[in-house]
Design brief:
globular, 7 helices, about 270 residues, five-stranded mixed β-sheet, alpha+beta, 11 strands
Length: about 270
């Protein structure tokens, strides 16, 4: 599933291209992707609206519309958002198409059909998409070891499970939880309440480092993004995620896999004692 760095990559690529364009019409090929309002109302209320920008909150994207409304979307596991010329080959699982006034099309494709769209009008509270329940952004200036400790120091749950809780930290998933804990030299199954203040300090710094590295490593041109059909995210820079059984890049020891809170986790038993 795309996490904060990958979703931020999508925003940085598409936002400059769609800003100022107007939605001429919308086609919904799979009605279930429209979570609010009805697919018919969604098409009617978005047609003719200008896109004033694009923003991200956690793993959610928003197309900001003139008049203050916004289209909130979540890519979920296999969703991708592509800005294409009109003659670009149509992907098999294209569920929604925004036809824009410069002739291009903003297409949403999703093999698993888990991605969702919500239309939130100006003045409405977004109690529908889940954005209102998100915790702080880990790249914001006020994110700190103190805030992590305040949220998790009394918890008996594994520290990795805590990092995955979007109500406490927005945007971290399985990939960057593993990467952050490796950089902080903390085992993913450690009870959160057992961490010392020094370890919270290391973890807060490691979270920012892992996310910023992910954003930088996934930097690509609009052409590269389209050629990869919105799924060309890079992984060669990852230290542990997806590398169970391979040598640790720090100590050379064998990376291990464990299940923590129902999620597969990879760690180094020597570096993360």
């Amino acid at each position: 599933m795309p996490e904060l760095p990958e979703v931020e990559t999508v925003r940085r690529i598409l936002e400059p291209q769609v800003r100022g364009l107007r939605i001429v019409s919308v086609t919904v090929n799979h009605p279930a992707v429209i979570a609010r309002p009805s697919p018919e109302e969604f098409c009617r209320l978005t047609a003719g609206r200008q896109i004033s920008g694009m923003s991200r909150r956690g793993k959610f994207l928003s197309l900001c519309l003139e008049g203050g409304g916004r289209i909130v979307l979540h890519l979920r596991m296999t969703g991708s958002l592509l800005l294409t010329p009109p003659d670009y080959p149509l992907e098999k699982h294209t569920h929604l198409i925004f036809y824009l006034d410069d002739g291009r099309e903003l297409r949403f494709t999703d093999l698993r059909r888990f991605g969702r769209f919500w239309l939130i009008e100006n003045g409405e509270d977004d109690i529908f998409s889940g954005v209102n329940r998100l915790g702080p952004e880990p790249l914001d200036g006020d994110f700190s070891a103190a805030s992590l400790r305040l949220a998790f120091a009394k918890r008996k749950k594994a520290v990795k499970s805590c990092l995955l809780d979007q109500e406490f930290i927005a945007g971290i998933g399985n990939i960057y939880a593993d990467e952050s804990l490796f950089l902080a030299k903390i085992r993913p199954d450690r009870p959160a309440g057992s961490l010392t203040m020094a370890e919270w300090e290391r973890l807060a710094a490691a979270i920012k480092e892992a996310l910023l590295l992910g954003i930088e490593e996934n930097r690509m041109s609009a052409e590269e993004y389209l050629a990869g059909k919105g799924r060309g995210y890079r992984s060669r820079y990852l230290n542990v995620y997806g590398r169970a059984g391979e040598p640790c890049r720090l100590c050379g020891g064998r990376l291990c896999r464990a299940v923590v809170g129902g999620r597969g986790s990879v760690y180094c038993p020597k570096c993360q004692r």
